[in-house]
Amino acid sequence: MATVKKDIRALTKEQLRDFFVKQGDKAFRGNQVYEWLWQKSAHTFEDMTNISKETRQMLEDNFVINHIKVDTMQRSNDGTIKNAVRLHDGLIVESVLIPTATRSTACVSSQVGCSLDCKFCATARLKRMRNLNPDEIYDQVVAIDNESRLYFNRPLSNIVFMGMGEPLMNYNNVLKAIDKITSDEGLGMSPKRITVSTSGVPKMIKKMADDAVKFNLAVSLHSAIDEVRTSIMPFNDNFPLDDLRESLEYWYQKTKRKISYEYVVWKGINDSQKDIDALVNFCKYVPCKVNIIEYNPIDDGEFQQANNEALEHYINTLEKNRIVVNVRRSRGKDIDAACGQLANKS
Ligand code: SAH
């Protein structure tokens, strides 16, 4: 009977060293292979040129490297690149490279599909199939880093977990991936350049604070009124704003790091004075800034971006209340690569 080969990147460095010792080899061989797997991002055992042919064959007999494959790459008029990434089991996720004058930002996925049901998000229409493994998240980052070097002559500068899925519902794997991305044995990136975006799972926000993570936190708020938020993000019914608020206060107390709120203003949904006042009030709880995101239409028009006047009023009111506000223009809309548009359409 054929033995099932193990995913070699599920092993820690220690486990890999132990494996080689058990094989009668040196623990050091584990370090060499580990370096190939992560820092050098080898796709095959063949690539490991400083490992003997025999050892490579032995690894081949026992393990697999479940490397992702960029199935298709699309380039937008504005330079944005979208990768459709094929996983070892044939499922597909998407990741995006967003270039600006000074930065290259990778937007990566954490799950195949999403279990949340935000009414305005295309990914929500895909069933959640499974969580991504740490190596599958890591590979997306490496692929985008390579593309950034190739097309923009510079390495990746920032990473946002704003692709498909809810990162805090795949917390352990996201954390392991970030460990590799930030470790010198991986990509050696600073955690200050990484942002995890969540729809707001209070228990997990507290856990992150307890785990003393060093990356940034963004919360997709979109409304500071429970009824409104529940109508567009139904899971809010289970995690109401009071709980979210409490978890964010806890986060700030422990980490002393500002929170970013992501916020889209929609016509007739959250563009009234009452909505603005509620947001201003919510912003008083913990030090924060607000990123107003442009709406990327995904449907038949149930959701429409509020007009400029309403947006201006939002921005002015926030500024008057000394709240830092940024307006984020959409990127990659023509190739369905913008926020909330990732739905494996091509
Ligand atoms: N699940 C995580 C990360 C994925 S969504 C989260 O909710 O934060 C990344 C961001 O895109 C979130 O702020 C989300 O609310 C926003 N978004 C979703 N659909 C959108 C759309 N159609 N237009 C603009 N932003 C959208």
UniProtKB/TrEMBL annotation:
Cofactor note: Binds 1 [4Fe-4S] cluster. The cluster is coordinated with 3 cysteines and an exchangeable S-adenosyl-L-methionine.
The enzyme's E.C. designation: 2.1.1.192
PROSITE patterns per the UniProt record, alphabetical: RADICAL_SAM (PS51918)
The keyword DNA damage is assigned to this record: no
Cofactor field: [4Fe-4S] cluster
Binding site for [4Fe-4S] cluster: 114, 118, 121
The Radical SAM core domain, residue ranges: 100-334
Reaction catalysed by this enzyme: adenosine(37) in tRNA + 2 reduced [2Fe-2S]-[ferredoxin] + 2 S-adenosyl-L-methionine = 2-methyladenosine(37) in tRNA + 5'-deoxyadenosine + L-methionine + 2 oxidized [2Fe-2S]-[ferredoxin] + S-adenosyl-L-homocysteine; adenosine(2503) in 23S rRNA + 2 reduced [2Fe-2S]-[ferredoxin] + 2 S-adenosyl-L-methionine = 2-methyladenosine(2503) in 23S rRNA + 5'-deoxyadenosine + L-methionine + 2 oxidized [2Fe-2S]-[ferredoxin] + S-adenosyl-L-homocysteine
Pfam families: Radical_SAM, RlmN_N
Active site as annotated: 94 (proton acceptor), 339 (s-methylcysteine intermediate)
First-listed, main subcellular location of the protein, grouped into a coarse class: cytoplasm
Entry binding sites for S-adenosyl-L-methionine: 165-166, 197, 220-222, 296
Enzyme class: transferase
Any coiled-coil regions, as ranges: none
InterPro entries: Aldolase_TIM (IPR013785), Methyltransferase_A (IPR040072), RlmN_N (IPR048641), RNA_MTrfase_RlmN (IPR027492), rRNA_lsu_MTrfase_RlmN/Cfr (IPR004383), rSAM (IPR007197), rSAM_sf (IPR058240)
Compartment list: Cytoplasm
Keywords: 4Fe-4S, Cytoplasm, Disulfide bond, Iron, Iron-sulfur, Metal-binding, Methyltransferase, rRNA processing, S-adenosyl-L-methionine, Transferase, tRNA processing
Note: Reaction proceeds by a ping-pong mechanism involving intermediate methylation of a conserved cysteine residue.
Family according to the record: Belongs to the radical SAM superfamily. RlmN family.
Functional note: Specifically methylates position 2 of adenine 2503 in 23S rRNA and position 2 of adenine 37 in tRNAs.
Protein name, UniProt field: Probable dual-specificity RNA methyltransferase RlmN
Protein species of origin: Litoribaculum gwangyangense
Gene: rlmN
